[in-house]
Design a protein that fits this description.
The complex is a heterodimer of chains A (621) and B (355). Chain A is an alpha/beta fold. Chain B is of the alpha/beta class and 355 residues long. Chain B has 2 domains: 4-247 and 287-346, Rossmann fold; 250-285, no CATH class. Chain B contains 11 helices and 14 strands. In chain B, α6 (196-208) links the parallel β7 and β8. The longest helix of chain B is centred in the C-terminal third of the chain and has 16 residues, at 322-337. Classes of the chains: A alpha/beta (621), B alpha/beta (355). At the A-B interface, α1, β9, α9, α11 and α12 of A face β3, β4, α2, α4 and α10 of B.
Amino acid sequence: MATVTTKESESPEHQDILELERVTIRFAGDSGDGMQLAGTQFTKTSAVIGNDISTFPDIPAEIRAPQGSLPGVSGFQVSFSSQDIFTPGDQPDVLVAMNPAALKTNLGDLPRGGLLVVNENEFNEGNLKKAAYASNPLEDGSLQAYRVYRVPISTLNSGALKDSGLTPVQIDRCKNMFALGLMFWMYSRPLETTLHWIDEKFGKNPAVCEANKTALKSGYHFGETTEMFATHYHVPKAKLKPGLYRNITGNEATALGFITASKLAGRQLFYGSYPITPASDVLHELSRFKRFGVKTFQAEDEIAAVGAAIGASFGGSLGLTGTSGPGLALKSEAIGLAVMVELPLVIMDVQRAGPSTGMPTKTEQADLLQAMFGRNGESPVAIVAPATASDCFNMAVEAWRIAIKYRTPVIFLSDAYLGMGSEPWLVPDIKSLPDIDPNFATDPATFQPYARDPKTLARPWGIPGTPDLEHRIGGLEKSDITGNVSYDPANHDKMVHLRAAKIERIAQDIPDVVVDGDESGGLLVLGWGSTYGVITTAVQRARAQGKRVSAAHFRHLNPLPPNLGDVLRRYDQVLLPEINLGQMRMLLRAKFLLDIEGLNKVSGRPFTIAEVERKIAEMIG
Amino acid sequence: MPVREDKGSVMVTAERGTGPNPALTRKDFVTDQEVRWCPGCGDYSILAQTQKIMPELGIPRENIVFISGIGCSSRLPYYMNTYGFHSIHGRAPTIASGLKASRPELSVWVVTGDGDALSIGGNHILHVLRRNMDLQIILHNNEIYGLTKGQYSPTSELGKRTKSSPYGTIDAPLHPLSVAIGAEATFVARAIDTDAQLMHHCLERAYQHRGASFVEVYQNCNIFNDGTFRDFAAKEVRADRTITLEHGKPMIYGKEKDKGLRFNGMHIEVVEIGKDGITEGDLLVHDEARPDPTIAFLLSRMEWPEYPVPMGVFRAVHRPTYDALMTKQIEDVINAEGEGELRDIFLEGDTWTVE
């Protein structure tokens, strides 16, 4: 076999290279076909060669649904570009379908004229039946609208590996590498990053290691030598801000942000959590970082997880808990306790489609009102929401800054789209991040458990082990200053107001919301959380067409940025797209007495750019 | 007591030493808060013994924390001049677990009741015990809901008539110590509010034990369930109707020391010493350190009038605590891999530079 060189795309004898600005590929196959792996490897390589990237996995809720069945289809979409991109792409330009079920569930997203690569070996009677196809779509003319490439991926792969010494089942498992190699050729990507990864992953098993490499190279060579593909493509490097980058998912960035906060505060991070999709990755990440002194506690349930975090915070650690919507519901009472005892606590909610168990692997922004109000009594908490996968890092640190400075629970509201999606992260300079001062109380002469800092209204954090600061806290109403149990009506009224005022005071530490576009007039498209990417792109496109439209995004949901009301009043119309039925819109209308138009979608999927563009056109023509 | 060597670092599983702290007296552990239990409540004597024993344990006061849930008993932290946390119903073990796991040097005590620990907080009790978190858990068992004014609890006897069961309960009660033993508890004891000496002994042993120490205290609720333990615990009958377990000693009880317990097949039976040729040598010898929990479990099932009610330490076995294992695991990783540098994890995976 000839040695694969990775310079083809630049070599002069290849005249059939078409330069593209942006390409979106979706890998789709059975959940056992290794599509997530193929997608992540494609992403890594694209990032390393300098494209801007954005990804989103589409994972079935069932761990292993029956092979070849429709619910068993797993997908991974990656978009790569020579320009800044903010979303994983509305629709794929290319669909790689490893079986009929994958074709059936994904074809609807492929635009007419799109490129379709199918593994034709899998289009047999049994698989067609499992996918509920009455006739073979490869034969019946139903795919005429697409550029179809029928590749016998299974047999080409097994042919290439016939001397590998592996069992037929093991050989078949390598076919994702064959498909990946083919895509690498088609989009002029080098193989090194993935070859290196295979070495690391399978180094201990030389036969499997070699087979995966062979499959990858065979796919690449198939593209190179066959006459099936007339063209291959090149996507030049993006012009990103200079610096050192890595690819990162939102959940990874979140975990790194929490550890960074713990370093900046000089206090141990304690993570109490119960496994739940799509938040478990944060537990997995943090449990790897023992060398940072991070303590992870896999609790018996969601309530124990938050209880343990509160206990750790009482002891002076950074008590953190993480979950998704159903878990947040279970934690409500304990979060109310943290409101009452005024201890720092961060609650991460990686939102998923609800209500109830809902659609655990699908995204939604519908926990906002639960985060705001889902507790008994007047129980205000601070809420922050990251805008992008890499922004999860910034907002995780920010959540801790607020929690510690104001001695309050802070809900970090991420979602499945951010948590599981990835993008390049400009690695920050650690020295540029300001320290977080836990500012423990130590002086018995002045210590009063419920005395308050006049500027922040925060109470002192006096931790066990500090001599002569022994005191009792708890869920019963506390007397102002002393913290003794109190049923005094006037005191309760005062304390309810103090707790609310304390959360409002956080606004003094929140940056103003910044508008991208015109200072006033026309349409403002407002967003929070993971809609940042689509809104930014849709507004950029509309402005390129000369439309009078601007965008603004806010990441502090409670309290809101101090200038938000003024900003909203400067525009003729305001549009607020949300992946819910209008929860933030309701809050903003109530707070500012302004009409705000909604664009709402609850299909478990993020908005497409086109959907936001259409709504902009509908509102301003 | 065994000290286990584990990969070079010592996992201490021996009893914890105690010694008086001369700087402190019982008064140092009394707060200025008015105690608000009903006059005559058994909780007073539990509070008194708890305050009395604190200066004897040799712990700096600032390192002691009392954590409770909700219920009459859970008011206790307000009356202890230590750090304290009166939390939410059933969840004290979770808050105590987070505190102890993050600050293993603290002495953390959980105060709970039969409803708090075995009904709403049942799940947490199971898991705090199986993890062997190094806590002292004191369960005030009055077999009734007091704070909510008289409904039946998960330890109320079958058929009990209460405000919420005017025709009698139809659910079978739990035996708290059986639950604890089933949940892999390493230390299990029972005391009663009317026996100060026994309670003192159980609290002291609970503190000395490294691991989750579970102490059930029979506590009389003189308002809603008065006299529920009277049949076997009243002064005049106690010697004949209870048995105090003592490690290494044959199980003898009775005013005349004439009754004993014998192991017969798969069950324990009551025998009279001297009758049918039975001697002390035939009796069961109490071994609290027996690794197998079967006999401790059988003892935990014994109820008056079929049996005398066992008191004292049922079980005290040693295995590493969760908090020690957690600390050790982190130390081991740091020893093997070095202390973490943020830069290293920021740059995990493939990185690239944009010029």
